[in-house]
Amino acid sequence: MRKHTELRLEAWTVIVAVLLVGLIGFMLSRMGGMSPMATNQQQMMMQFMDGIDKARGQVDTALTHADEALKAADVSTVQKHVGFAMDALAGQGGAKRQMQMMQDMMAGPMMSMAMQGMAGMSMEHHSDMMAAMQAVQSNMTNALEHFKESLMAETREMAQEHVRLAKEQLQAAKGSSGSNDPKSGGLTYMKELMAQMMGQMKH
User: Model's pTM, two decimal places?
Assistant: First the structure.
């Protein structure tokens, strides 16, 4: 009799455990609202957006130092601010590092997302984003070349002329709101396109 009771209790324990697991799984699925894959896609897109914001911040820093260099009274002060601007672009955690990270994401996992039409991303979106990134990277490379020329200049006037040319490239890299051209919209275009895709993902 005792063995029979123990077996019955064990059977009920198993049934209760199965029901609890099912209930917990149901509640988690209702609370989560997204599959693990969708959540990973959203996290990736948020990471990409964070990269855009960091790159824009570094470009703004470089622009600030370019402005200070253009107001400087002597060549040594010009070149001091040029050094700070170059560090914002090419230093550790600089804008170019952020661009490389985003390009790796876009060429890898985000390419797969675009091919499958996942997370609000189409192949057209992917193509536009790649074109925008290439244009921004070209602008940054050109700006760095002008900054390097500024560091080698012997006069304040010549140094500031290269800073002025670098500033033009930085402004192109930053871009302006409302642009429909990926090749001239800069980081602002990238941010607005990513925001559009993330908005579509929520629907």
Answer: 0.78
